[in-house]
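Notebook entry, structure prediction.
Reason for the run: the old model in the group folder had no record of what sequence produced it. Starting over properly, with the input documented here first.
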Amino acid sequence: MDENIGKENDLYGQIAAYFHTYFEGLHRYAFTILKDNDDAKDAVQAVFLKLWEKRTAIDEQQSVKSYLYTAIYHYCLNVKRHEKIKEQYITTNNHTAGEFRDALIDKEAYRRIMEGIESLPPQCKLIFTKSRFEGKKYAEIAGEMGLSVKTVEAQVGKALKILRENLSDTMTAVFILLLLQP
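New structure, fully documented this time:
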């Protein structure tokens, strides 16, 4: 049993020596890849932790230095890959959330506008829908309905005034929601 303790102490001493010998160079190498001092330190520590976990399988014939540099390289690539995936996830989800929110706002605003149009007096509603949805000119509407152009203008003006009054709270809410978007 004392032999195992002695061997463990030797392994500990070896790894401590590797740490003191290679830490600075590994840190610089990791920093060139990650461009962040703390991430580079974390990478070196993670690789030495992995080396400690594999301490019983250390092969003296294999170059520990090349193992450490290769391990740092792969660790750093995994960190970069993970960052890229995280950025894509954030971008995708923020974009999707924004589109969903916009669609909800558009749908709600459209519903409120249509309710407002439906609540207009019958002749006012008919003239307004011919003007706005069918794209007819005031003179055309006047000719179809046997009204003067001034009456058509007055009815469209009345419809717009009623809609502005009825929808002012909706438009304020939509405006506030648009301001709150990231």
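Summary: The helical segments are 2-34, 37-53, 64-118, 122-132, 138-145, 149-180.
The old model has been moved to the deprecated folder.
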